[in-house]
Amino acid sequence: MNVLRSSTLLRNLAATAIFLVIGFLAVYSVDEYTAGTVAKLALYICAALGLTVLVGGNGQISLGHAALMAIGAYTMAKFLPSRTDDFGQVSIGVIVVGLILAIAVTTLVGAVIGVAAARLRGPYLAGATLALGVAVPGVTTYFHDTFNGEQGLPIPVPRLPASLESAGWTIGHVVALIAIACAAVALLLMANLKRSAVGRHLAAVRDHEISAQLCGLSVPREQVRAFAFSAATAGVGGGLLGLVIQGANPHSFGLVLSLSVLGAVVIGGLGSLRGAIWGSIVVVYLDLILKDELKVDPNAPAAAYGLLLIVVMLAMPGGIQGLLTRLGGRLPRRSAQPQGGN
Amino acid sequence: MKTTIGTGRVARPGRRTALATATLSLALVAAACGGPGGSGGGGGGGSVPGVTDDTIKIGTTQPLTGPAAPGYSRISKAMDAYFKHVNAEGGIHGRKVELLIEDDGYNPTTTAEKTRKLVQQDKVFAMAGALGTPTHTAVLDFLRQSKVPDLMVSSGSLSWNQAEKYPNTFGWQTDYFREGKILADYAKKNVDGKTYCSFGQGDDLGADGVKGVEQILGGDALKAKESYSPSNTNVAPQIGKLQAAKCDVVFGFMIPGFTALALGTSAQLDYHPQWVISSVGADPLSLKAYLKENAEALTQGVIAANYLPVVGTDDPWAKMFTDIHKEYNDGAELDYTTLHGYCMAYAIAQALAAAGEDPTRESLVKAIQEGKVSAGPSPTPYAYSEDDHSGMTGSYISTIDKLQVKPLTKPLVTDDADGAVEEYDGEAEEPPSNGVPE
Q1: Domain residue ranges of chain B, discontinuous segments joined by +
Q2: Does the structural domain B177-306 have CATH classification 3.40.50.2300?
Q3: CATH number of the domain located at residue range(s) B55-174+312-390 in this protein
Q4: By CA distance, what is B20's nearest residue in A?
Q5: Which residues of chain A does B32 touch, with a Cβ-Cβ cutoff of 8 Å?
Q6: CB-based burial of residue A111 (10 Å sphere; 0-12 exposed, 13-18 middle, 19+ buried)?
Q7: What percent of chain B has pLDDT over 90?
Q8: In this complex, do A331 and B108 lie within 8 Å of one another by their Cβ atoms?
Q9: Are the beta carbons of A150 and B134 separated by less than 8 Å?
Q10: Which of A292, B79, B253, B272 could lock B200 by a disulfide, CB 3.0 to 4.6 Å apart?
């Protein structure tokens, strides 16, 4: 017990293990269709975890996160297809390599964007990242030979090990397991990051740039770092989205996706990792419940979603995690949520 | 300083460890029981998914919201109206057709989700008339893996005609390649202009269409080839380039909104080429909805391909669908996009009927491959065979005159390779008296 209390790593490992077990159980207990929505939830969590570190943890903003996710998906689409077997499938090992590659490429691009972002503040940064998000279809059409324009590129499905297949597992289940595992790794890394020196540097820059500078921190360097971290998880989220829909195309990575992920972060509670999980659950399931269960007008989810954002901003600016904390009153030092530079 | 990040917190290790142990042991118990739940609910006892004694369930994905909705949401309403008519007439082989329409907002991610829902949760017998090239491309592999028949895809991409790779997927409307060939053949013989150019959507619609044009006119016949992305509504740069290249005949492969933009933009630039456009972007009523009071002037004399019966004439099919439209749909003027939905639904009903008294997924695919779906309302016959999964074999050429479609030629047919464009003089079929295929 005392070890857990004193060691951040062990504590985070325990939390990650819980996340993994719950996630695996969820995948295990549902049919193939629902496994697909679990996978979608997991990839939203991946992207939201990084974005919450960028927005809540470092005080920057990105309205174009879908573009980074697209880079992850297109990296997978470029890497995987040539490695398929006769059935058009690839082994899980190759997919893991593809995801790592997706992270590497997206991190690199994120760092480059971060350099530009570090020079911009407030609305200018929002505008620049928004432009990035809107540019995806244009880029894929312009470089038609490389990205196959509007239709995009196919991404092969994982090959099931024979033992799993005979036990009744499907491709949908395996993709969901991969997504849960990725989200768990992202959760572990981001949780450790928050409690590390780097995390404190990011927070210092967010709270007061001049003070941070006076303490010897390089503001641009911390901002580029934050962008790179969030790009990494966006990359893995995008790669996973590609796996789920078996392809990468510009329509899937539009403005709606950028805003959904940002919405998940805000609804969950800016800067809170657990909030990113709650927010993703709300964003993924609100749509499903309204459309599939209640059969409301197809345009209603978008309206409900906008309404929810307004309500959250007015009634509980700390998001769901902030509300939980207030209700519980158990974690006094984490009470009020975002402060300082944003 | 109070911050979110970088503060310590009081852990509650006791509760957490207990929770972890509990969930872990649950997981072990579950793992000991074999495979994941819910996946064994397929067809037990030789039953066919989606088919009962008195119903047959089919699914489709359509853009009811989002950018493509204003034009295309009418298609699924027409399909729905037609199957209501079929059911009122007693259904197909005594089974009522249950059409499940899912909205994908023209977003392939949603298409993938909704198609999975239709197949895995609703357990449809077949997918039918799913709309859109980028959207449906995203689910081809999934449908192959799930072995679900995928009938009459509502798009003219050549991708649906890959019988070896996707044995269950069938196209329906005349593909863009054939239309490109037919338009080019007509332009070569009947239009005065000498400088040919093209303007098309940045997917198969543009690419396949241009390939068809080049098949007839030669590889370097197009002086300028411009394309657009549907998410960017500024087409002035591309139209400007066509003008600079002094193109006097422009082959257009566009959706209605972009036909309207192209016509409007070129008029603004005082540039007046002869537009020769594919059927998907040529419905006068859709263009009127975009161009409003300028519609008649801007569309006058545009040459277009058309694969549907002519509305407003004594064509018995157009009359039949107009009647169904009045009874089961909103009854507004029948436009060609809506007619597309009716004709497609008819072809789907033909396939379901041809699959036999006790349809299976195999008998459905076999019936289409054996050519049991006759032309029906389509002016040209279908190409369906074991190795050819493309749909209609041709179109007639028409011009838009006072916002009406005026045919200029007989139906013209051609193939998906280097064959010539020929007139089709087969007999037109009569519609069945009750409007339901036998």
Answers
A1: 55-174+312-390, 177-306
A2: yes
A3: 3.40.50.2300
A4: A18
A5: none
A6: middle
A7: 71
A8: no
A9: yes
A10: B253
